[in-house]
């Protein structure tokens, strides 16, 4: 008798985040699929946690939902206990780690990415593995198209393998401006939607600056 | 890693430009995670045709050598040079002749047709199914990474210089996200006028 | 005196019997390792003013047509319908849970405060909790109703996976019915251009295709039509609906099995 498998292959397509000097971007497609079947073309995978924090968790979507619910509960209790003090992204990231590692022996099958503005006003991207190991990074991709997106981000966000034409030295890292970063996200996702069948329909981009939150939507291929 | 195609590692990519094509591969040869060589070239020249083989290294050497014999025989019998599409069909039928005991290779063919001047790139699976492309083809253990890079960097009608930069960045950045592809790169740019430029790329050695 | 060290400090075999180590090789206790009596697809779609859901009346025992009058649409509260596919005993458990929810919700507030998103969320948490106990409710659920006067349609499976879409279906329905329903409602918002009659026709057509090609389907089904009339929810559950205008002329063309003259 085969054992019941508590994990499934239902998931959102892919997501991606970029941190800038004064902004952070989190983007994901709105396709939800199980295997090769498209369940929904309009299922947002970006969760608004409040306190200027946004999260995507690619992987098994029932676990992803549970993780978001857990985090919302943690944040609510943090507010109750600390006179509605805003939860910083570094503390939210540690909390996420605690939740993930708390299920070390029955893990949440997800790769979460969290964005927010750090205490010093810079944009922050934190990414996690399913067991809770985490780090702050300049950019990160997760989900079905992570292998396609990640080398592109290395190349265009951190200038991997690019040389300065004048000096011939590795090109100096400079902070991207917001429009360049948004254009990169669009290029990355149109490319990924071309080759990864689980990615498509609509691209949802959340842009975080000191002035607040902006959401943008772009069409992706729908086949 | 019991998959024969992923024991030795390695990847290749080919792209079409304006009156030119480029083909590139990494230089690594490994046994699972252990790198044993950093000068294992995977691109072979057959007249004006450039063929990259990725996959199981022993099959890469066997098939590339057998193709050398078949190519030489063709040029002797036919008394003319072989066009890229002919080379592609030759590779395809060679692979299909081993339909039920395949060579574990993923070839690419790149070249320029000497009569029409049309650039030509083509990829195959291990049993010879041909995929002729109008832009680029990729193969190897970094296939996904190469697709991600190529889809976003590629533009139509690039000059030989632009094509070299694009294919190099595609290969290098893809290789850095695949543990068993890398240790340097090799790029050929083939132009319509017959000029062939071979360049070696320096890259991370880990 | 015991001379073997590993037996020291352990209960004596001659008094308590030998140690029973069988639990070490056993698996966790689970209830539904496989579904037994099952219902097949549930399908649903939105239209400009509401939602249509359908599920046939067959409960199969493997390939046996065991019960042919099984109701698989459950009305919960005053403006929500839950369609259930999969194990029928688990369906009955869900029915009881929904009854309990209705009762507890009616103590201090009127029961109509229970909306489709409430029920969707509640059921999702039950399904996820049961899968996490490795004791799943072996069902696929389609929830139809309203959210702030707008049509609401959602899906949950036995793992607690959930999503909303303008057209949803479980089982064979996801291959056979979804393409028919998506002709009318492909993406969110498309339901604005679909009338109740169009939606009902599409659902009936899909139920016909399912009856033709799903060997576990029946041509008798229930059809729930949820709409808003003057801002008030109107839930109409049609029972014993038949698949109409069946055309079996192609059956004669199929050769190779069954009774044939030649």
Helix-strand blueprint:
The complex is a heterotrimer of chains A (223), B (206) and C (262).
Chain A: E1 10-12, E2 14-19, E3 23-29, E4 32-34, E5 37-40, E6 47-50, E7 53-59, H1 61-81, H2 89-102, E8 110-117, E9 123-128, E10 134-137, E11 139-143, H3 146-157, H4 178-195, E12 202-209, E13 212-219
Antiparallel strand pairs in A: 1-4, 2-3, 2-11, 3-12, 4-5, 6-7, 7-8, 8-9, 9-10, 12-13
Chain B: E1 11-17, E2 20-26, E3 29-31, E4 34-37, E5 43-46, E6 49-55, H1 57-78, H2 84-96, E7 105-112, E8 119-124, E9 130-133, E10 136-140, H3 143-153, H4 160-176, E11 185-191, E12 196-201
Antiparallel strand pairs in B: 1-2, 1-10, 2-11, 3-4, 5-6, 6-7, 7-8, 8-9, 11-12
Helix pairs in contact in B: 3-4
Chain C: H1 13-16, E1 37-39, E2 42-47, E3 50-56, E4 59-61, E5 64-67, E6 73-76, E7 80-87, H2 88-106, H3 116-132, E8 139-147, E9 150-156, E10 162-164, E11 167-169, H4 173-176, H5 178-182, H6 196-213, E12 220-229, E13 232-242
Antiparallel strand pairs in C: 1-4, 1-7, 2-3, 2-11, 3-12, 4-5, 6-7, 7-8, 8-9, 9-10, 12-13
Description:
The complex is a heterotrimer of chains A (223), B (206) and C (262). Chain A contains four helices and 13 strands. In chain A, the strands form three sheets. A five-stranded antiparallel sheet of chain A has the order 11-2-3-12-13. Chain A is α+β, with helices and mostly antiparallel strands and 223 residues long. Chain A has helices spanning 61-81, 89-102, 146-157, 178-195; strands at residues 10-12, 14-19, 23-29, 32-34, 37-40, 47-50, 53-59, 110-117, 123-128, 134-137, 139-143, 202-209, 212-219. Chain A is 29% helix and 33% strand. Chain B has 206 residues and is of the alpha+beta class. Chain B has helices at 57-78, 84-96, 143-153, 160-176; strands at 11-17, 20-26, 29-31, 34-37, 43-46, 49-55, 105-112, 119-124, 130-133, 136-140, 185-191, 196-201. The radius of gyration of chain B is 16 Å and the shape is globular. With 262 residues, chain C is α+β, with helices and mostly antiparallel strands. Chain C has helices spanning 13-16, 88-106, 116-132, 173-176, 178-182, 196-213, and strands spanning 37-39, 42-47, 50-56, 59-61, 64-67, 73-76, 80-87, 139-147, 150-156, 162-164, 167-169, 220-229, 232-242. The chains are: A alpha+beta (223), B alpha+beta (206), C alpha+beta (262). Chains in contact: A-B, A-C. Chain B: One of its GO terms (biological process) is proteasomal ubiquitin-independent protein catabolic process. Chain B: Component of the proteasome complex. Chain B: Keywords: Cytoplasm, Nucleus, Proteasome.
């Amino acid at each position: 008798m085969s054992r019941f498998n508590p994990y499934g292959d239902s998931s959102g397509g892919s997501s991606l985040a970029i941190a800038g000097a004064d902004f952070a971007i989190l983007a994901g497609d709105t396709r939800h699929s199980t295997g090769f079947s498209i369940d929904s073309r309009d299922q947002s995978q970006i969760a608004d946690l409040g306190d200027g924090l946004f999260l995507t968790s690619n992987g098994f979507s029932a676990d992803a939902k549970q993780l978001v619910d857990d985090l919302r509960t943690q944040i609510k209790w943090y507010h109750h206990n600390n006179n509605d003090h805003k939860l910083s992204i570094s503390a939210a990231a540690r909390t996420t780690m605690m939740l993930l590692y708390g299920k070390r022996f029955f893990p949440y099958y997800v790769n979460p990415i969290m964005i927010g503005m750090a205490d010093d006003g810079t944009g922050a991207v934190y990414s996690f593995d399913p067991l809770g190991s985490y780090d702050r990074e300049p950019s990160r991709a997760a989900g079905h198209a992570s292998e396609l997106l990640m080398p592109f981000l290395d190349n265009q966000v951190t200038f991997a393998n690019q040389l300065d034409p004048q000096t011939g030295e590795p090109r100096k890292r400079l902070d991207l401006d917001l429009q360049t970063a948004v254009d990169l996200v669009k290029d990355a996702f149109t490319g990924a939607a071309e080759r990864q069948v689980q990615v498509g329909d609509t691209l949802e981009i959340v842009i975080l600056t000191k002035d607040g939150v902006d959401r943008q939507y772009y069409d992706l291929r729908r086949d | 890693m019991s998959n024969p195609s992923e024991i030795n590692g390695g990847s290749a990519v080919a792209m079409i430009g304006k009156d030119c094509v480029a083909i590139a591969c990494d230089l690594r040869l490994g046994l699972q995670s252990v790198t044993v060589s950093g000068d294992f070239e995977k691109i072979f020249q057959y007249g004006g045709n450039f063929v990259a083989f990725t996959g199981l290294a022993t099959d890469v050497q066997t098939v590339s050598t057998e193709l050398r014999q078949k190519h030489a025989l063709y040029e002797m019998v036919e008394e003319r040079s072989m066009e890229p599409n002919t080379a592609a069909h030759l590779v395809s039928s060679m692979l299909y002749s081993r339909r039920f005991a395949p060579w574990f290779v993923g070839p690419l063919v790149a070249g320029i047709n000497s009569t029409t001047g049309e650039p030509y790139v083509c990829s195959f699976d291990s049993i010879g199914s041909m995929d002729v492309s109008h832009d680029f083809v990729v193969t190897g253990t970094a296939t996904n990474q190469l697709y991600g890079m190529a889809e976003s960097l590629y533009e139509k009608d690039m000059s030989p210089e632009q094509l070299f930069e694009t294919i190099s960045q595609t290969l290098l950045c893809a290789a850095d996200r695949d543990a068993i592809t890398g240790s340097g790169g090799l790029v050929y740019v083939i132009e319509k006028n017959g000029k062939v430029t071979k360049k070696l790329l320096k890259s991370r050695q880990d | 005196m015991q001379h073997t060290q590993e037996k020291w400090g352990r209960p004596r075999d001659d008094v308590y019997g030998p140690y029973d180590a069988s639990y070490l090789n056993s698996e966790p206790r689970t209830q539904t390792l496989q579904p037994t009596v099952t219902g097949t697809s549930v399908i649903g779609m939105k239209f400009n003013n509401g939602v249509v859901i359908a599920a046939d009346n067959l409960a199969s025992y493997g390939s046996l047509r065991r019960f042919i009058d099984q109701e698989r649409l459950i009305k919960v509260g005053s403006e929500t319908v839950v369609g259930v596919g999969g194990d029928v005993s688990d369906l009955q458990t869900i029915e009881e849970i929904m009854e309990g929810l209705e009762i507890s919700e009616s103590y201090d507030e009127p029961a109509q405060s229970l909306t489709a998103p409430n029920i969707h969320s509640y059921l999702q948490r039950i399904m996820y909790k049961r899968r996490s106990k490795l004791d799943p409710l072996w069902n696929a659920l389609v929830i139809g109703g309203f959210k702030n006067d707008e049509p609401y349609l959602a899906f949950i499976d036995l793992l607690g996976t959930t999503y909303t879409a303008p057209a949803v279906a479980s089982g064979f329905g996801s291959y056979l019915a979804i393409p028919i329903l998506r002709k009318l409602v492909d993406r969110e918002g498309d339901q604005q251009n679909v009338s109740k009659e169009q939606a009902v026709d599409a659902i009936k057509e899909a139920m016909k295709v399912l009856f033709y090609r799903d060997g576990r389907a029946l041509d008798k089904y229930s059809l729930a039509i949820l709409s808003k009339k003057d801002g008030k929810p109107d839930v109409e559950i049609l029972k014993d609906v038949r698949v109409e205008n069946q055309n079996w002329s192609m059956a004669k063309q199929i050769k190779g099995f069954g009774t044939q003259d030649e």
